[in-house]
Design goal:
Helix content is 48%, strand content 24%. The protein has 195 residues and is of the alpha+beta class. The protein has 2 domains: 9-16 and 105-184, PH-domain like; 31-87.
Amino acid sequence: MSNNLEDLMTIKYSLEESDYILHQLYHSSKSPVAIKQRRNSYIFVISIGVFFGLLSYFKDNNIQATIAFVVFTIVCVFSYPIIENVRHKSHFKKHVKEIYKNSIGKTVEFEFSEDFIKTTENDSLSKISTHEISEINEIEKIIMIKLRTGLTLIIPKAKIIEIENLTSRLKELASSLNIAYNIELHWKWRVNYWA
């Protein structure tokens, strides 16, 4: 296939549960609203320990209770991010199973050129102008084409035979549309509190 954007490129693939979960985790790691909510929860939990520790020290002069709350706070500082990582993965796994149950494992036909993207899945056809693309994100296992509507088209890299050709054409498309093509091949999910 040619690298010319005017030529139509067609690929077929299926998305697995792990692809959808990866997309959700990536989106959550980049969303300012989600980051702010996680940060506020983290600060709240730590503040509880500090508050009760100070209260038990200054009001009751109870050294044992103060030490217990200091230990609680220290444990929270280090364990809360680990617990949040597990909780988010579990949440998104349930979310994906519920929301995407009819899409998991189904064949998607994806066509694109300079002017449009057309996807066919479960006898549903969508044709989208490429000018609706707001950015393209590439991580180790998937490529995410984010649309201005908030939807994202997910492409699993391992299932694409001509992945170099595809990424080259998507980079060309991003350049012609003057949008970002973000490459984060070493991105890993972790709870992020401080965007």
